[in-house]
Design goal:
It is a single chain. By secondary structure, the protein is mostly helical. It has a single domain, classed as 3-Layer(aba) Sandwich (Rossmann fold), CATH 3.40.50. Helix content is about 45%, strand content about 10%. The chain has helices spanning about 5-10, 30-50, 75-90, 95-100, 120-145; strands at about 15-20, 50-55, 95. The chain has a three-stranded parallel beta sheet with strand order 1-2-3, sandwiched between helices. The two termini are about 30 Å apart.
Length: about 150
């Protein structure tokens, strides 16, 4: 995402960007350290260009297909705690998609994902209202800021 951020976000001059990522990084050896670094870089780039940032929680998963021994749930919880704290410290909007999708056992609720990892259409039906509310809030916050 960071490698594409300039072309996919900054060059388009949006007022708001919603950053939601990291689920695939949990299974990589670099893990969440690289995810956190990349998110910080994207936030800094966005802010330097006057773009309001929304951070979205990583969606829940208790299993990765092809890596049955990997238990991503605790790593996802930890990353989401970091995201929530980072958002609070930096006055960013944080959207907790994890809470909306989780099954109580660190996984995604049945029927909301086709792979146990990424939300499907029904999963997006659950989280779309949360995203819309965050985007609305971002525009409200921008409207209340003094002109620069």
């Amino acid at each position: 995402m960071l490698a594409r951020f300039r072309a996919d976000v900054i060059d388009l001059h949006p007022a708001v960007v919603h950053i939601m990522g990291g689920i695939n990084d949990v299974a990589r050896t670099s893990g969440t350290a690289l995810t956190r670094s990349n998110i910080v870089s994207m936030v800094e780039l966005a802010r330097a260009h006057g773009i309001t940032v929304i951070l979205g929680a990583v969606t829940p998963s208790s299993v990765f297909q092809g890596s049955p021994d990997l238990k991503p749930g605790p790593h996802i919880l930890w990353l989401n705690q970091w995201l929530r704290g980072y958002a609070a410290e930096n006055h960013l909007i944080y959207v907790d998609y994890h809470a909306a999708l989780q099954d109580g056992k660190l996984g995604i609720r049945d029927g909301l994902s086709n792979d146990g990892l990424h939300p499907n259409r029904l999963g997006f039906n659950v989280i779309s209202p949360l995203a819309r509310a965050a985007i609305y809030q971002a525009f409200q916050d921008r409207a209340q800021r003094p002109a620069q």
